[in-house]
Write a structure and sequence with these properties.
The chain is built from nine helices and 13 strands. The protein binds adenosine-5'-diphosphate (ADP) and magnesium ion (MG). This is ABC transporter ATP-binding protein.
Length: 349
């Protein structure tokens, strides 16, 4: 198969996926594919990634190095265009924007914080000047921008750094100033790619708390990418990416007991993608020796997954008394799961 054919097929598949997936969400990634081609070698950095982010959320995206996190953020920030799929942020369709719209989008809708502090702030300007700079470009009067710069630095807890240049601040202070710079023109969404990647644990904590404050006090939707799994303590929702797809999520909720005491409960979820695929954690697969074919059974309230082993003779247990460690008999009546290839999403794969 030639490269052009495979790209065409991917686009065709993405086009067929119409419907209302993600209506109402602020950020919609629907079956995103990004293929890099260098020297004849194809790298699939995003392999059909689905992600929805609601307005006002603070979401962390975690994953091993090379899992596609930066590729995703480059797409969402309008720097890169995916190979196939659908991606929308607010009213902006990032697949079909013109170059001019792309500039508008980057100026008005989104702000960014990068891992390298030098990429975020100008070395010869003070913090206050750095934060005021994007506002000056946007034509805001001097008084108004000085006032807003001071307010933003205060919100991030670095008001005391207003008159310092980057070289006079720690890495964590610089990154918090960088967050203020990114917020200067009041974007709806803030993207941060490994903002704590060059910081120690204690300083990382301050930067992540800074993002949380921004989310809570200014209402900015925040998407932060990190390889640091400890981030989930700072956010309500952590999405894990594996091999260019969202694979699992941890959601933290505050639980109030009957006596009024509050505790935070973290629950882990697997992500069912639009084609109905779900990734089973490696430890589950290893424990039950799940490889290749597995049996699925539809129960009244859930779906069970069984290793593909010969069904033991039914013996003394009657059909009604199937023990918990025995799969359902594979009779026609129990084949509750449609045969492969018969679901509309999977047709043609
Ligand atoms: N410009 C590029 N050209 C070729 N391959 C790339 C390029 N950028 C990223 N990749 C590849 O895409 C995959 C995902 O990369 P990336 O999104 O940077 O991952 P992460 O940020 O999670 O470490 C990796 O295999 C990486 O080598
Ligand atoms: Mg990266």
């Amino acid at each position: 198969m030639t490269v052009t054919e495979s790209l065409g097929a991917l686009e065709e598949r993405a086009r067929r996926r119409t419907g209302t997936f993600g209506d109402g969400a602020l950020i919609v990634c629907d079956s995103l594919v990004r293929i890099y081609q260098s020297e004849g070698v194809e790298v699939q950095a995003l392999q059909g990634l689905d992600l929805l982010v609601e307005s006002g959320e603070l979401v962390a995206i975690v994953g091993a190095s090379g899992s596609g996190k930066s590729t995703l953020l480059a797409v969402l920030s309008g720097l890169d265009v995916p190979t196939a799929g659908r991606v929308r942020v607010g009213p902006w369709d990032l697949m079909s924007m013109t170059a001019r719209q792309r500039v508008d989008y980057r100026r008005s809708m989104v702000g960014f914080v990068w891992q390298q502090t030098a990429r975020n702030i100008v070395p010869y300007l003070t913090s206050a000047e750095n934060v005021a700079f994007p506002m000056a470009l946007a034509g805001m009067p001097r008084r108004a921008r000085e006032k807003r710069a001071a307010e933003l630095l205060d919100v991030l807890g670095v008001g005391y750094c207003a008159d310092r240049r980057p070289a006079q601040m720690s890495g964590g202070e610089q990154q918090r100033v960088a967050i203020a710079v990114a917020l200067a023109n009041s974007p709806e969404v803030l993207f941060a790619d490994e903002p704590t990647g060059e910081l120690d644990t204690a300083t990382s904590h301050d930067v992540l708390e800074g993002l949380r404050t921004v989310n809570r006090e200014l209402g900015t939707t925040v998407v932060v990418v990190t390889h640091d799994a400890g981030v989930s303590e700072h956010v309500q929702r952590t999405v894990a990416i594996r091999d260019g797809r969202t694979s699992s999520e941890v959601v933290r909720r505050t639980h109030t007991a009957e006596d009024g005491t509050e505790s935070v409960v973290a629950e882990e979820y697997a992500v069912l993608d639009r084609a109905g695929r779900v990734q089973l954690p490696r430890e589950y697969r290893q424990t039950l020796d799940l490889v290749g074919r597995v049996r699925l059974a539809l129960e009244s309230s859930h779906v069970s997954v069984w290793p593909d082993r010969p069904t033991p003779p039914r013996g003394p247990h009657g059909p009604q008394t199937r023990p918990h460690d025995e799969p359902p008999a594979h009779t026609g009546r129990h084949a509750a799961v449609p045969a492969p290839g018969t679901t509309d999403e999977e047709a043609g794969r």
